[in-house]
């Protein structure tokens, strides 16, 4: 990695950690620069504004998810309904590991940012909405396959996928509020009972 790339990655990694640990509004550029051990000039060379940095953080986290546990959970080699179980387990162990390490649950970075800034910054709102739309599409494809294989009765896959994503994010938020990852393990299995439209499952 060349020095310029290393500097950019340090800024990005530091901001991601600070935004996730605290909040977007609570973390200033000076703190990011101090923690990353870079000059402000270097910061503005890579990121014209804090908003641009936040967008890069969202992209970076989304990329990690896409090639990390999201890819594993929604692996086409897994039976469709098992993918939902895998997703819940992944969310649980991710939050539990953070709680064991830091003493508190960080929640979902995307959910945290959405709650904090989506009604105040249209650009960041659109960026976060795109991330959620992509996540919802994974649920939708899984439901389509489950119907094709006769595992569940026909339903509105798009709406149910959005409901599942909302349930997942809400469950993580509730667990964060209680600082208890066990909430995810206890409530997670109910995600498979969500059904919108179509015939009732036999």
Which structural class matches the secondary elements? Answer: mainly alpha
Element pattern in H and E? HHHHHHHHHH
Oligomer: single chain
CATH top level class name of the largest domain:
Mainly Alpha
Per the CATH scheme, the topology name of the largest domain is Tetracycline Repressor, domain 2
CATH architecture of the largest domain: Orthogonal Bundle
- Low-confidence parts, pLDDT < 50 over ≥5 residues? none
Strands, count: 0
Average pLDDT for all residues: 93
Strand content: under 5%
Number of spatially distinct domains:
2
**How much is the radius of gyration in Å?**
19 Å
Shape: elongated
**How would you characterize the largest beta sheet?**
none
Helices, by number, come to: 10
User: What is the CATH superfamily label of the largest domain?
Assistant: Tetracycline Repressor, domain 2
- Measured between the Cα atoms of the first and last residue, the distance is 56 Å
Helix content: over 70%
């Amino acid at each position: 990695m060349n020095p310029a790339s290393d500097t950019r990655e340090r800024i990005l990694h530091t901001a991601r950690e600070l935004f996730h640990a605290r909040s977007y509004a609570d973390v200033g550029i000076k703190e990011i620069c101090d923690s990353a051990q870079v000059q402000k000039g270097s910061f503005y060379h890579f990121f014209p504004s804090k908003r641009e940095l936040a967008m890069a953080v969202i992209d970076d986290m989304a990329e990690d998810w896409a090639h990390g546990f999201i890819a594993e959970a929604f692996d086409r080699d897994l039976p469709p309904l098992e993918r939902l179980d895998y997703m819940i387990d992944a969310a649980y162990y991710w939050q539990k590991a953070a709680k064991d390490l830091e003493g508190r649950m960080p929640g979902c970075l995307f959910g945290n940012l959405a709650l904090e800034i989506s009604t105040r910054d249209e650009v960041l709102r659109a960026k976060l909405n795109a991330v959620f739309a992509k996540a919802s599409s994974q649920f939708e494809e899984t439901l389509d396959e489950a119907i094709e294989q006769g595992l569940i009765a026909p339903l509105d896959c798009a709406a149910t996928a959005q409901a599942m994503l909302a349930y997942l994010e809400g469950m993580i938020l509730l667990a964060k509020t209680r600082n208890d990852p066990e909430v995810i393990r206890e409530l997670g299995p109910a995600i498979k009972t969500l059904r919108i439209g179509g015939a009732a499952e036999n």
